[in-house]
Amino acid sequence: MSLVVVFMPAPSATGDTWFVNEAATTGTNDGTPWSNAFQGVSGVRNALSVAGAGDAVWVTHGTYLPTDSADRAVSLNPPGGVGLFGGFDGTEEAIGERDVVANLTLLSADLAGDDGPSFANREDNSFHVLRIENPGVQVNGFTIRGGMASDEPGLGGGGGIRVAPESDPLVKRCRIIENEADMGGGVWVERGGRFEDCEFSQNRAISLGISTGGGVHAAITLVGGQPTFTNCLFIGNAASRGGGIAGDHSEYELVNCTLVANRTTADTIGGGAFLEGTFGRATISNCALWANAGTAGSDAETAQVWTPSDPLFLTLNHCCIQSYAGVLPAEGAGNFATDPLFIDEFGADGVPGSGDEDLRLGIGSPLIDAGLNAAVPSNVTLDFDGLPRFVDDPATEDTGAGDPPVVDIGAFEFQVDAEPVPVPVATLSSTVAFVLVLLSIATAAFHRRQLASVSGDPR
User: Fold this and answer.
1) What is the spatial order of strands in the sheet that 238-239 belongs to?
2) What is the rounded CA–CA span in Å between residue 113 and residue 132?
3) Each residue's pLDDT tens digit, 373-410
4) What angle do CA 199, 245, 352 make, to 5 degrees?
5) Fewer Cβ atoms within 10 A, N terminus or C terminus of the chain?
6) 367, 410 in Cβ contact below 8 A?
7) What's the whole-model pTM score?
């Protein structure tokens, strides 16, 4: 007789761990351990129904819905103090073993399973994928797609995520994509909330009146709290105003974010970031705002970011802003308008936010070593890719502020070890040169993945 010892993940320090596996067909379907994980598209909802403060919910790759009925008003709503984590394959014993890129974990509003391109067949989708109404919630490692709040009775805000006042969640390593609402197509956030290492792409705010915040709408903040966004991407979002992010009588802060090719549909201003209202305040540091556009394709400074005519509303520190000429009424320093030299701004298909673009920094980018160290929160040591945030490039003069190494501008830090080998294309045939350039870029991407795999990234 042999003794078999099976090691399972220990419960979290203050609670239990619940397991979800959409593809599972055996076991007791009661959530613990992996062999008895909650099953099917309702697995996440079932896990949240039993989880309590201090508990963690681990979710494997797959697609999960807010409900198995046709009730559009039902959303996933985590209890207070619960951590919801995606990106598992169902074998992990520690959260650092998961791979959120390889194990796509989708929280979807597509109740009928018939969503098409260009927001087709969305009229029967859930209004909101997630509603965060309780304090202390974490959401980490998910793609959140398909929320359709623009036809919700009343004000439909936050197709992907609607954040209630006082809930102050941490949303990390999530892709919020292809959601729609009257305001805040991707996210509606009221007062506090932290968003780190997140991507907001191809969301839209659309209504019969003025819609704001294609990616994010920061709603009224009369007292206390402000949403913060660190190491985030805003790509290809659209709204009447504030294609990427909009603030309405609210405060928000962007640190080391990249806002590219967001657009307004009814105005020439605020394609990237927009701010209005008596109580509006925005602090934007170490950010790149490029190729954002107003109507008629305007790429002026005010199409990248717009604020009322009072510098107390806006602070810009060490940002790369297309067409920047100091016209904006803003406090701050270290801003410039030099081409950021992204590796591939729009990707092969030319469609912003489709996923084939590469907004990492190319060799010689003026964003390298050009940021403001003091703007980076003390707990942030990694970039969007999970690689070291403060890396010195010996080939680049420090133009930022702070003791070396000086942080880069944007969501990605230039990794010297991942630098592609320059190819002397002038001496090669065009075909061979093209192939070698692609190979050098692919090699750099491989090196970045290798660095990430050994970094012990526990995010």
Assistant:
1) 180-181, 204-205, 238-239, 263-264
2) 24
3) 999 999 999 999 999 999 999 999 999 999 999 999 99
4) 50
5) N
6) yes
7) 0.89
